[in-house]
Design a protein that fits this description.
Layout: H1 4-28, H2 34-60, H3 70-86, H4 90-114, H5 120-139
Helix pairs in contact: 1-2, 1-3, 1-4, 1-5, 2-5, 4-5
């Protein structure tokens, strides 16, 4: 029997990964620098792989993967598009992605602390997502 904490942690990871992919895809069309574009494309691929692992594990637990909260997704879309309307530079793109990484990292650590009874596999998957967010943030610093 899978613990409630494991399922909750996986659900939050799944939602966070989907939001990350959605946000990067939104920004990607405005990125001009080819190196920056490659970093984002690679990170989208890595996030999708982690999302597939999360989704697969949720399925093994007998749970459905849910889409991110539509209100949160809409607010993210509005914020990104409003900021990009006034400044669609690579610098601004990097800033917005960095903000997203920071939010993702903080949120995932909060959920790791909240769902202490989650199994090690779910915790390890969460930590892998955090590492991907940290790596992306590090790799795009030069575009800020």
């Amino acid at each position: 029997m899978t613990s409630k904490d494991t399922v909750k942690l996986l659900e939050e990871c799944n939602s966070g990964v989907q939001m990350a992919v959605f946000s990067m895809e939104e920004i990607l069309e405005d990125v001009k620098d080819s190196d920056f574009r490659k970093i984002l494309i690679d990170s989208i691929s890595a996030h999708r792989k982690l999302g597939d692992e999360t989704h697969s594990y949720l399925s093994k637990c007998g749970c459905e993967a849910n889409d991110p909260n539509p209100v949160a997704k809409g607010m993210s879309w509005m914020k990104t598009n409003t900021k990009m309307l006034f400044n669609n530079s690579d610098k601004n793109c990097a800033y917005l992605i960095t903000e997203g990484c920071n939010m993702g990292i903080k949120t995932l650590y909060r959920y790791l602390n909240e769902y202490k009874e989650a199994d090690d596999k779910a915790k390890n998957l969460t930590e892998a997502i955090i590492r991907e967010e940290e790596s992306l943030r590090q790799n795009i610093r030069c575009f800020l």
